[in-house]
Design goal:
The complex is a heterodimer of chains A (about 325) and B (about 375). With about 325 residues, chain A is of the alpha/beta class. In chain A, about 40% of the residues lie in helices and about 15% in strands. In chain B, the strands form two sheets. Chain B has a six-stranded parallel sheet, with helices on both faces. Classes of the chains: A alpha/beta (about 325), B alpha/beta (about 375). Chains A and B meet through α3 and α4 of A and β2, α7, α8 and α14 of B.
Chain lengths: ~325, ~375
């Protein structure tokens, strides 16, 4: 199987869906002529032309809202946010309009849009550009939230997202764009809401998603070698819909849980997971549910310290040892 | 690369005197049949009587939340929506009852929606501010000031993308023109030549704050900053609304050009019916408008003067409209509320179409 980057995987998903459905339009800041702020959309303008690949002004409330309106009439915009952090200036469009219009119209209208872009810290760009809003987004019934960790997942999930008739928010990661992984050349889809056990183990379950999957896998390897601890890593891949069943199966196997997330702790995705695990698998637990999150402060700029603020393999190792102590 | 100004003969000075006779003679009005003229009158009366009936229901505590009445502004929605063709679309803010009736929605589900009943046009899930009927190209009914304007721009984008000859009318109040989303939409529409008419229904007050206290400069003229055509007109004369809007709509459909049209109008009731309405304007101001510019009385006088309508026929239309409003209220009263099970329907397309669901996992949480 060919190895391609996460970036290329997303690009291939876009191209395949642009080929498949004439109503798919890619729009966002610098997606066309500039070839993408992160080169995700490189070459798409040349292949599909300016009607399908559309550069927008720096005007998130305007163009995101416009895309939502167009989707009500059957266009399927895939809109790039250069940073998901900029969702705040389009908050009303994303979470009042896209999330609510189906409900408020009694089911008469749907919004088949995808909003995608990176949502991560770790690049020393300070607090304004380092938000991870998956918990905020997923708090709104009516939307779907996907956070892929690998090239394979990114491609299969994005294709499903584009075909979905509900609004899907697709959170990527600038640090993962260059990560390579095996991706088949033949077409495939990954359903939203299906978690993936990225590593099997028996002593503890790490429930995680996004870049924290990579940290957890690195930590699991060290824990196996240095501490003879067998870690199972469950990658949620999708936050809403949520595959809690795969999580519960793993808990029933290991009886110990650590949640690892690049989230501020208060009311995070992990908070919801911990609630659900204790509610639905209380008798399976041999100890309290542990969580490793981002250290609770705005994202610090200082490059070496930001690494410590976020989950990283060392912190995951320490958290596992603490959970099993 | 900057674009040249799209100066147009349509651009009119905001202070320009209106000429009712000229608008009556405009081809779009001259071509109207007797029946069509009477129908315009009938829709305005039906809106008025529907809303008066809804106000009584509100006072009787049959209706929750807000009730933003359109009374006094009827000629705007009726004039604009009477120009709609197959590929034309309408979106508006929370003062949305008039537009809903003007596009042809049945008043029974509209009233039932106010009552929060399952027979409501949004199954009791939207309420007064959230009427929708996509089958009539009516896209709401939106609660956040100015938030619907990017959506309306998107409707125009979709019309253009699909290669259709149509236009979107994105209505807002005078209070919305200071919202950032509105200006972002103006920029996109002008930048990309989208067929959207931004209709500013200027009733003089953004809630309780007068235009003079909230907006710098002329409202429509702000279009100049985007090299967009603009115009103004008086909104108490349905012929004038039709004549002015028709020019901009034709231009949008044929040339895919946006515009801002500010329509001067007036509301008789408070911002919402819960609004005390006495802190920011004199009763005499309302009475003066009602006496001289009431859109229904003005049009009734024109039609009677033109021998299109008799006093008796006008009275009959009024009686029928009152009866229709009562029938709608009775329908609403007799209808059931949604059930607790209905709360989680119409949230996700996939949940409502389980046989076509492709995702897995939980979409709802406890």
């Amino acid at each position: 199987m060919p190895q391609i980057t996460y970036r290329e995987a997303i690009r291939h998903a876009l191209a395949e869906e642009l080929d498949r459905d004439h109503n798919v339009v890619v729009m966002g800041e610098e997606v066309a002529q500039f070839n993408g702020a992160y080169k995700v959309t490189e070459g798409l303008l040349a292949k599909y032309g300016p009607k399908r690949i559309v550069d927008t002004p720096i005007s998130e409330a305007g163009f995101i809202g416009m895309g939502i309106g167009a989707s009500m009439l059957g266009v399927r915009p895939v809109m790039e946010l250069m940073f998901w952090s900029f969702y705040s200036v389009a908050f009303d469009q994303i979470l009042n309009n896209a999330a609510n219009v189906r409900y408020m119209s009694g089911g008469q209208i749907n919004c088949p849009i995808v909003i995608r872009g990176p949502a991560n810290g770790g690049t020393n760009v300070g607090a304004t550009h380092s938000h991870t809003p998956e918990n905020v987004l997923a708090n709104h019934p009516g939307v779907k939230v996907v956070v892929p960790s690998t090239a394979y997942d990114a491609k299969g999930l994005l294709k499903s997202a584009i075909r979905d008739n509900d609004p899907v928010f697709f959170l990527e990661n600038t640090i993962l764009y260059g990560e390579k992984g095996e991706v088949p050349e033949s077409e495939y889809l990954i359903p939203l809401g299906k978690a993936d056990v990225k590593r099997e183990g028996k002593d503890i379950t790490i429930v995680t998603y996004g870049r924290s999957v990579l940290h957890s896998l690195a930590a699991a390897e060290r824990l196996a070698q240095e501490h003879k601890i067998s870690v199972e890593v469950v990658d949620l891949r999708s936050i809403r819909p949520l595959d809690i069943d795969t999580v519960l199966l793993s808990v029933a196997k290991t009886h110990r849980v650590l949640i690892v997330e690049e989230q501020k702790p208060f009311a995070s995705v992990g908070s919801q997971l911990a609630y659900m695990i204790q509610r639905e698998a209380f008798d399976e637990l041999d100890g309290p549910i542990h969580r490793l999150a981002t250290i609770d402060a705005p994202a610090i700029y200082s490059p070496p310290v930001e690494i410590e603020q976020l989950p990283n393999p060392q912190r995951v190792v320490a958290a596992v040892l603490q959970a099993l102590a | 690369m900057s674009k040249k100004p799209t100066a147009t003969s349509l651009t009119k000075d905001a202070e320009g005197a209106s000429d009712p006779a000229r608008h009556r003679r405009a081809p779009i009005n001259a071509q109207l049949s007797t029946e069509e003229r009477i129908e315009l009158f009938r829709i305005m009366v039906r809106i008025r009587r529907f809303e008066e009936r809804s106000l009584r229901a509100y006072q009787a505590k049959k209706i929750g939340g807000f009730l933003h009445l359109y009374i006094g502004q009827e000629a705007v929605a009726v004039g604009c929506c009477s120009l709609m063709g197959k590929n034309d679309h309408v979106i508006t803010a929370y003062r949305d009852h008039g537009h809903a009736i003007a596009v042809g929605m049945d008043t029974k589900p509209l009233m039932a929606e106010l009552y929060g009943k399952v027979t409501g046009c949004s199954k009791g899930k939207g309420g007064s501010m959230h009427y929708f009927d996509p089958s009539r190209n009516y896209w709401g009914g939106h609660g956040i000031v100015g938030g619907q304007i990017p959506l309306g721009t998107g409707l125009a984008y979709a019309v253009k993308y699909k290669g259709l000859k149509g236009a979107a009318m994105a209505f807002m109040g005078d209070g919305a023109v200071n919202q950032g989303a509105v200006h972002e939409a103006y920029n996109l529409a002008a930048l990309w030549d989208l067929p959207v008419i931004f209709v500013v229904e200027n009733n003089g007050y953004s809630m309780g704050t007068s235009q003079a206290r909230s907006s710098a400069g002329d409202l429509a003229r702000r279009a100049d900053g985007y090299h967009m055509a603009w115009g103004t007109c008086d909104g108490h004369d349905v012929y004038e609304v039709r004549s002015v809007m028709n020019e901009f709509l034709q231009r949008a459909r044929e040339q895919s050009k946006p515009a801002v049209v500010e329509i001067k109008t007036y509301r008789y009731r408070g911002h919402s019916v819960a609004d005390p309405d006495k802190t920011y304007r004199d009763k005499s101001e309302i009475e003066e408008y009602q006496r001289t510019k009431d859109p229904i009385n003005v049009f009734r006088s024109i039609l009677i003067g033109d021998q299109v309508l008799t006093e008796a026929a006008a009275e009959l239309i009024d009686t029928e409209a009152r009866n229709e409003a009562d029938i709608a209220a009775n329908f609403a009263e007799a209808s059931p509320f949604p059930t607790a099970e209905d709360i989680q329907k119409d949230v996700y397309w996939e949940i409502d179409h389980p046989e076509q669901r492709t995702s897995q996992g939980r979409l709802f949480f406890t």
